[in-house]
Design a protein that fits this description.
The chain is of the alpha+beta class and 226 residues long. The protein contains 7 helices and 5 strands. It folds into 2 domains: 5-79, OB fold (Dihydrolipoamide Acetyltransferase, E2P) (Beta Barrel), CATH 2.40.50; 82-216, de novo design (two linked rop proteins) (Up-down Bundle).
Length: 226
Amino acid sequence: MSEPLKVRGMVLQAAPSGDYDKRVVLLTKERGRITAFARGARKTKSSILAAANPFVFGTFTVYEGRDAYTLVQAEVSNYFMELREDLVGTCYGCYFMEVASYYTRENLDGSQVLNLLYATLRALSNARLDNELIRCIFEQKAMVLNGEYPYETAQDPSLQEATRYAIAYVIASPIQKLYTFTLTQEIFQEFRRVQDRFNRMYIDREFKSLEILKSMTVAVWPRAGL
């Protein structure tokens, strides 16, 4: 058996495997997006029963196999229970995790997307922040981190000045400073239209979680200015 490996990350997906096991997808700082099997994780006395679930963030001990990893231990830093207990929060969170999975691969540095995902879920847990603005910022920054976002958009003269400023702010700001502004309804609508256009241009798949989210929610636009 290989030596145990500790990875810092978040559970993106979890599904039953066999009678008592789970198959989990982890986004990790050290190994990018990996698949691991949690043996006995569905047993009531399992030490990883609570950890082998989506939204769980922490340090995971795994063994590397030929085709997948085996998860044997977890030191949980955050369960994000406030999201898991809220239907709308769960839907947004699942969408953010699906996008994070889309932009990451095994054995590629996953630290930036992991940091973005964590900061975004923290913002989503803050009732004072608008969920749709969080979604738009997350989508834009994910594209920036992936090297796909057209930076010249921040100078597009067809956009209002406040919209250009918001775009430039998201491009340039460190992840921990992203969710620190709001927009008027008019500016947010333009901001949203720009990002929707880039989503259609640069993303080559449909996200099931987003379709569910759209069917459940009605956007409540931010009211304060940037």
